[in-house]
Structure formats: structure tokens, C-alpha cells
Amino acid sequence: MTHANTAYEVKEEFDFLKRTKLEFEKAIQFINAEIRPVEKGVRKFLEQPFRQLTVRFPVQMDNGSIEMFTGYRVQQSRLYEPTKGGIRYAPDVDLDLITALSFDMTMKCNVVGLPYGGAKGGVCCDPKKLSRAELDKLTRRYAYEILPMIGPDSDVPAPDVGTSEREMGIIYDTYKMFNPQTPYASAVVTGKPLNLGGSKGRREATAQGGAYVLEEAVKQKNIEGFSTLKDTAVVIQGYGNVGFHISQILHDDYGCRIVGICDSKGGIYSEDGLNPKEVMAYKNASPEQSVIGFDGLPHLTQEKLLTSPCEILVPAAKETQILSNIAKDLEAKVILELANGPTTNLADEILVEKKVYVLPDILANAGGVTVSYFEWLQNKAGESWELSLVKKKLQRKMAAAYGSIVETAKNHDLDMRSAAFVYAISKAINVVQERGIFP
Ligand code: NAD
Q1: pLDDT digits over 381-393, tens only?
Q2: What whole-number distance in Å separates Cα of residue 260 and Cα of residue 268?
Q3: Which residue of 31, 161, 236, 373 has the fewest C-beta atoms within 10 A of its own C-beta?
Q4: Nearest atom (ligand 1) to Cα of 158
């Protein structure tokens, strides 16, 4: 897609939902002009979420007071069912954010070839300010409120920012109490604890999938100047589930040097490389729950860390982090987008111009939903796969998805993000045509 064919490149869009719509529109315009005509009605059908639920519910806090919370569940596409997508607990959760994330889920499932529509959910809250008991009560009540939507064959949640295996266990239990006869009820959520039917390898799946995509890109010599990942310098933004696991995998399995790490409080940098496990142990023990102060290293701002010398930058925190000013200054040759929507539209244009190789979120972080799919299959079949089998299947899926996007990029002379959207939306258009419109 050329820079001249849409007006949006001139304005930096910080709103994730608006950016998602622009990305969609850009891909539709391209398909319409270069591949085949796309009816207006089909565009609308694909763009708009088919179901959005907002719930308000009370939770009794530890001190006896009652607090009201707002939660959401959005099912974006029902071209395939069940729908699938994580649950986020964060102070900035609102309907627009959840809708944008649900759209990305639809794209992601199409990119990797999973038989799911996209969905997402969340509760506006600050989990760091809630006690364990309060979080458990909030989760159980939220699960109850979204019961009309979720089910092993209708909509299957998973963890995202601020949630983990524990919340998935509670959602499963709540669902089971109200649906005691449902067969394979554990398939109502993925990312569960192993004892409840969770899959080996799910916790680190998003990071592992990203590593496989990166490995494939290097193997196929698609990144200029990269013949190996060994000793490459990596900066990681976000040190939660995804950020920690990607640093550990790149460090332990690929011999990368993790030179920079940051969390919401700021970052640290060491040219000689950091040991991910030591940094995590320090973070867990620190009163601030932060990497700041590790090994006496200076405290860097986010901006400083993202633009520090490195070859690979991994955003693994949240959306709208790589802004145009950062894109202009960053030194990385590769960006592995494990967070959802980390890059603004304008930053993206700058990265394309600078020939930075971007592995876009809807490809790079699809390992999480892929192993969720494996978990769902195991639950339905009453099986428990070995870790080696999960990893082998994940690698195959991620390599195939990467291959499809590279092929689309080459065939149509597109950057990787545009190619991923064009590929995913073209597939959705096929499904609409093949299924037809009911009635
Ligand atoms: P998490 O809650 O475990 O970790 C998030 C981390 O980001 C925390 O360390 C937090 O301190 C940090 N953070 C928050 N704001 C930041 C900022 N402005 N700068 C730097 N760090 C910041 O969440 P997670 O599950 O690791 O998810 C991270 C990202 O990956 C999200 O965008 C999520 O949507 C995406 N993702 C997660 C999964 C999954 O399976 N968990 C799957 C696909 C995509």
C-alpha cells in the first residue's frame, strides 16, 4: 500500500479502536482495488462487532463496603464459532478498547487458521489495588454476569493483562456450577491451571509462538543483516507473563543478549546483557514490584529504553506505546510485536520507511490463542498432550502462518502488517461468500 492512497497517514491516531478501523479500511481498499471488488455490505458486516455486553455489578470489599464495577464481553465475528479472546483487568478498560481487541482476535485467528471468531472481555479495575479475596469475588461475579455469552461451543475466554490461570479456574468453576450437565465444561476457558484441564505450554505460549516466528524470519533470511539470533541485543517492554517468557526463551534457547527491560515504572539497560530469571526474582522481591534498581543500574524512562541501542525490540506491555517520536529515534532492526496494538499508524509508516522489519501483533502474538486452541481440543477429547507435542504443533502453526503472510507480502508488494490484514480479511470475505447470509 502506498503512502499516497489514504489520508490517514498524516494524522497520528492514539485511539486503538479508531486505529483498528483505519487498518481495516486500508486493507479493504487495497483488496477492492487490487484483488477483487468488496461489496459495501460485506465491509460493514466484517467491521462491526455482532454482540457487545456491558455489565455493572457490586463486589463486597474486605472492609465491608460495596464497590460497583463495570465489565464487558464483546464477540466480534461469528463467521466461526466459538468466539475466542482474553479477559483484561486494567483501569483503562472500556467498551472501545475491548471492541478493538476483539477485532484483533478475529484477525489473529484468521492469520493462524484457527476455527474461531474473535472476542474479548474485561473489567475496569486496578488489580494491583485489590486484595486476593476481592479479586476472586470480582472474578466470580463477572463470570456470572457473562454466563449468557460464554460456553465451550459459543465463546471461550482466556487470560490477558491482569488475569491469569487463577481467574480462569474461577470462571470455569462458576460456569460448571450453573451448567452441571454440560459435557467438556472445562473447555469453557483456556489458560486454566493444569489440574483443571489446562495445557502444558499455555503459560509461555504467546512468547514461544513469537520466538518461532522470529526464528523462521531469520531462517528464511528475510531480515537484512541477520544470519543468526545468537548474541543479538534485545530490549523488552513489559515484564509480565509475555515479557518475562520471551526474555527467558530468547536468552536460554537462542543465546540472545537481553540488554534492556522495562515495566510500568521504567527501565534498566546493560550492554553486557541481563539474566531474565534474576531480574524477575528481583522484581518479585522488590516492594515496588519493579525491575527498577536491579544490580544498581540507572533508572531509564520508557522513551529512553525504547530508543536505546538494540537489534530487536519486543513490545510486550500494552497498546499505543511505539509512537512516531519513538519510531524516529529507535535503533532496532526488528520489532516483534507481542503486545496487542503497540504501534501507532504514523509510527508504522516511519518504521516502513526506515526498513525496520515489523512482525505484526496479529501474527507475532498468535501463539497464545493457538495453544488455547490446543487446550480446547484436549479438553474436548479428554486428552493431555506432552509439552514436546504442544511445542511441535505450535512451531508448525506459527511457521505456516509466517509463510502465508510473507507470501502475501511478496505477491502484493506489501509490508508485513498490511499483508497480515489483507490475508486475514480476504479469508473472512471468502467465508462470508461461502456461507451466505441467513436467512
Ligand atoms: P501482564 O499483565 O502479565 O504484564 C503486562 C506488563 O506490562 C506488566 O509487567 C506491566 O508492568 C507492564 N506495563 C504496563 N504498562 C506499561 C508501560 N506503559 N510500559 C512498560 N511496561 C508496562 O500481561 P501479559 O499477559 O504479559 O500481556 C502483555 C501484552 O501481551 C498485552 O498487550 C496483551 O494483550 C498481549 N498478549 C497477551 C497474551 C497472553 O496470552 N497473555 C496473548 C496475546 C497477546
Answers
A1: 999 999 999 999 9
A2: 6
A3: 31
A4: 40
